[in-house]
Amino acid sequence: MATTFVIACPECSKQVRVSDEHVGKKIRCKGCGHVFPVTAAGADAPPAAPKTKAAAPGAAKTKAASAASSKTKGAAPTRALRPDEDPNSPEYDPNKYILAQNNDTMPRCPFCAKEMPSVDALICLNCGYNTRTRQRPQVQQVYAPTAGEWFLHLLPAILVILAMIGMVVWYLFFWDLIEGWLEDSWFEDEKGPPTTYIAAASPSMFRVYHALLIAFLYVPMVRFLYKRLIKNFHPPERKIKEDLY
Predict the structure, then answer these.
(1) Does 198 lie in the same domain as 169?
(2) pLDDT tens-place string over residues 167-213
(3) Which residues neighbour 135 within 8 Å (Cβ) at sequence distance 6 or greater?
């Protein structure tokens, strides 16, 4: 019965199991394809060292750099961290090149071309331009309104208020005087007593007509007071630059 034993390939040192019947014959290694003769079991011929291809000129440096990188990864950072970096993150690499923020890489305002305060800044501190709304506030130099300008600006509103008060006072007097005015007038009917008036021209009807007239005049007055006292309360501004040219 043939016995089996293990030999090593002299090229790649891969172990191959053979039997006695293969002694003196040549076999091919399944690992590297090298053909070599089979020697008897127990032979003292040392297996040949595996042949290695000549390393490229920069291979040693590349392996050394890879080893240094693997040792450095996970160590303390060798550069300043950015605000958005986390040294504990699995994606963090201290040897990774980053773009330094200097005067050449900082964003600039699209309106005045001045440097923005930061990458995430929306408002330019130089001209006030908003990069999101693409608008710039209008800044003007104006004179402070004087007491005379305030008085002239509010004078029409004051006169309207006095007129409205006068109309109410007049209506109260009219309420009492209308009966005397219609007495012995051609509006009075001669069929009395009691005293009647023709064509619904009684004092009560004149009071209603007068109240409707006052309410009709109050509508534009109230609108004017709203615009002058609430909507446009401040007097018109006078620009300083208009006086310089």
Answers:
(1) yes
(2) 999 999 998 888 877 777 766 766 656 666 666 677 888 889 899 99
(3) 129
